[in-house]
Amino acid sequence: MIILENFKMPNVDLDAVMQHLKDTGKRTHQLWLDDETLAFVARGREYRSEFHINPSYEIQYSLKGFQDLMYRTPEGEVKVAHVPEGSVLYQPPFVPHSPRFAPDAFQFIIERVRKPGEIDKFHWFCPQCDHLLHEETFFVDDYRKDPVSRAYDNFFNSLEFRTCKKCGTVAPGRDGS
């Protein structure tokens, strides 16, 4: 028999978490983080335009509404995995993906905690010619630090990052212009 000190079993009221995110306007709420697992609820990803490359698997459950998970094949082709409410999707590590769902939709996500030296990447592509515009990298150790928003701030705040070096197209800014 194994005896665990300070043993906790998180029992989370997901309806209350979704209401908290609505009330506060926040986009994510971390549920737990231990040596092996990171779990959080995310609200609305309608603004996403980048492809996230995560060294961990992701398990994504559609709590409310649906998600269209855009992803890139090894050949660079963009495809869509539709995840209806009540469905769960397993995403293997290193798949470039871009979760898209409405502001009133919610996802429950479980990931493996990053190992030392593992880095998450965020890639933006030219909307005209699909050339890689910019890459942001982060060590994702805690979703309360909101690495996605930090990556977006860096991208949107730089005209240089949003300008295609191949065709000269400027990707839209935060406000769509």
UniProtKB/TrEMBL annotation:
Classification via InterPro entries: 3hydroanth_dOase (IPR010329), RmlC-like_jellyroll (IPR014710), RmlC_Cupin_sf (IPR011051)
SUPFAM superfamilies referenced in this protein's UniProt entry, alphabetically: RmlC-like cupins
Signal peptide positions (record): none
Keyword Oxidoreductase in record: yes
Keywords: Dioxygenase, Iron, Metal-binding, Oxidoreductase, Pyridine nucleotide biosynthesis
Classification via Pfam families: 3-HAO
Oxidoreductase found in the keyword field: yes
Cofactor(s) in the UniProt record: Fe(2+)
Record's function text: Catalyzes the oxidative ring opening of 3-hydroxyanthranilate to 2-amino-3-carboxymuconate semialdehyde, which spontaneously cyclizes to quinolinate.
Name by which UniProt lists this protein: 3-hydroxybutyryl-CoA dehydratase
Organism name: Mesopusillimonas faecipullorum
